Amino acid sequence: MLNSRMTILLRELMAADTALTSQYLASITDVSSRTAREDIKQLEDLIEGAHIESIRAKGYKLTIHDNQSFRNYIKRAYQEKQLDDAVIPNSPEERVRYLIKRLLLEDSYVKLEDICEEMHISKSTIQNDLKHVKQILKKYEIVMDKRPNYGLKVKGSEFKLRFCMSEYVFERDKKVKAPKRILLDQLPFLTEAQLSKIWTIIIEEIKENDITPSDIAINNLFIHLAIACKRIKSGNHVSIYKINLDEILNQREYAVADRIVTKVEECLQLTFPHEEVAYIAIHLMGTKTISQTNLQEEEIREVLDDDIYQVTLSILNRIEEKFDLNIRNDRELIVGLALHLKPSINRFKYGMNIRNPMIDDIKFNYPLVFEAGIVAGIVLEEEMGVSIDENEIGYLALHIGAAIERGKMRQGPKRCLVVCASGYGSAQLLKYKLQSEFDSKLEVAATTEYYKLQQCSLADIDFIVSSIPIPDLLPIPAIEVNTILAEKDLEKIETMVFKNSTRLFDYVKENLIFLEQSFSTKEEVLTFTCKELEHKGLVGHRFLESVEEREAVAPTSFGNLVAIPHPITPQSNQTFLSFCTLKKPIQWGDKRVQFICLLSVKKGSTEDLQSMYEMLGEIIDDVSLVQELIKSKSRYDFAQLLVSKS
To answer: What confidence tens digit (pLDDT) does each residue in 252-293 have?
Structure first.
């Protein structure tokens, strides 16, 4: 019987077209070379229809001498679940990705029955999965061609097929892997030596020609170049319109790409057509940047194209107008964003996508920043006629997020005013206790008696700490505490010091909670929820359209069965949250969702969105809380549970 290590070894040997060294096989199973050799001996005794050949000074190679016998052995091994369970996708998301990868890497038609057998699923299940596959492929203008008695095959322009492969063949991994390791894992048609050579060629050429892409950009170029080798081997070439090709030929990057390709041709014994060289050149054009960011305003204008500079300002103005993040005048943001947009224009121009391995983390941990990135994308489309996907939006969001964090670092401590009716001594006790507890996080601007409060300027005060009730309507919050601060008093003040004043409680209404619904699609959920809101007079008839428009940019599913849909621009006259739970999870983009929180922000308002998203983020991150909310049977229990945890 195969153990887990032998399973990995067999999979590697089956995938390789050259001999694999014992050192390499040992490294992928985390054992010594000696143990790897022992495992190979045991594997040799078990397999049927093949043997493992030991080639002196090269390593081990699987040689199949009876195809039918070997195939039958593999099928039995799968049926007995002796092969690694990770090979067989279980969840709908895993199945969809598996199907896309399977179809993209297959040069001929694939029978549905064969895939069902591989995945151990029924035909009805795979038919449902293929609906999601079709939707994803449509984004890349790729269609599934179905022929009776033959099966399925994907068809589309080679350019689009290449882009789709880069996204779905190379699945994102939260653990950072070297790009070479990723390719060895998932594109075994190139050997480790060949991939190492390609990587070296790229690094040498970009250094020699003073091109400075980011690490991620180099990884993308490396992956795309490896895919190009595979596709050329299969007889598939990229086609570029003549007018675009002529334009690329005149670029400096084309000469660099030509040198890279020449060296790769020698290494892999392939012949790249001019279009393929142009394809690599586009990657280089799409990654070049300027390393200076400490420029003055006039220097910035000189370095950047005027249209890019102007669209950068438009983006920041729109973000400020919508979110009030106070980042409009951040010079580092202006430079960073504009320098990012400058090479991006080449990607937009030639319809290239860019992989962003951080996209899920950005959406999950910085939802407000991601929304600001979407606003940036809207401005780009309006002013420059370019449409970007969520990968590119994620990179724009990183620049915006960095500016927000810089702003926080520049902010001083919160400032409070102490009001005390018990005299100077009590006021001073309160003051020093606060300073002792909160140190540099809180500055006590002054102490005063209540009757003098009207004479005090509250312009630079964040909140008031008072030992007596303050009935007056004030422009800032007032916290009533005991003169001798108790634990509860300190907790109230701590909330004000470290968090903004928005409370989830203010936005949770029982009549906007819909539990245990039986919907099976995202569209059904959104239609139902938006119609309910319209019936209650909270939104207009265009609300659903605006929510769907936002979903089209990037799905609002965040993982942990949670989605937070919302309109692409504010549509309501008040801020509110509407909740919906489902009896069974549904597919929402590339994730499963069972808990939906629809967020609507008041038109023309910038009321504490950051705090709102932070609170919603805490819900997203709490697996047990989400499970409890999904199991809730009554609106009251749901609301109480939600508020108690926020």
So the answer is: 888 898 999 999 988 888 888 777 787 788 777 765 544 444
CA–CA separation, 106 and 234 (whole Å): 10
Q: Which two tokens stand for residue 146?
A: 């179905």
* CB-based contact 231:237 (threshold 8 Å): yes
Q: How far is it, in rounded angstroms, from Cα 345 to Cα 358?
A: 21
- CA pair distance 83, 63, nearest whole angstrom: 19
397 to each of 386, 402, 589, 610, how far by Cα in Å? 17, 9, 20, 14
User: How many Cα atoms within 13 Å fall on the side-chain side of residue 623?
Assistant: 2
Confidence (pTM): 0.52
Asked if 419 and 465 touch (Cβ cutoff 8 Å), the reply is yes
CB 433 within 8 A of CB 418: no
Identity at 28, one-letter amino acid code: I
Strands 591-600 and 576-588, how do they pair?
antiparallel
Q: Tens digits of per-residue pLDDT, 82-132?
A: 344 445 676 777 888 889 988 887 778 999 888 888 888 888 888 888 988
Place of tokens 């569209």: 523
The β-bridge partners of 418 are 447, 465
Strand partners, 480: 466
Contact 336, 397 (CB under 8 A): no
Residue 257 CB contacts under 8 Å (≥ 6 apart), including other chains: 277, 278, 280, 281, 283, 284
DSSP 507: G
Q: For residue 464, give the H/E element and its range.
A: strand 463-466
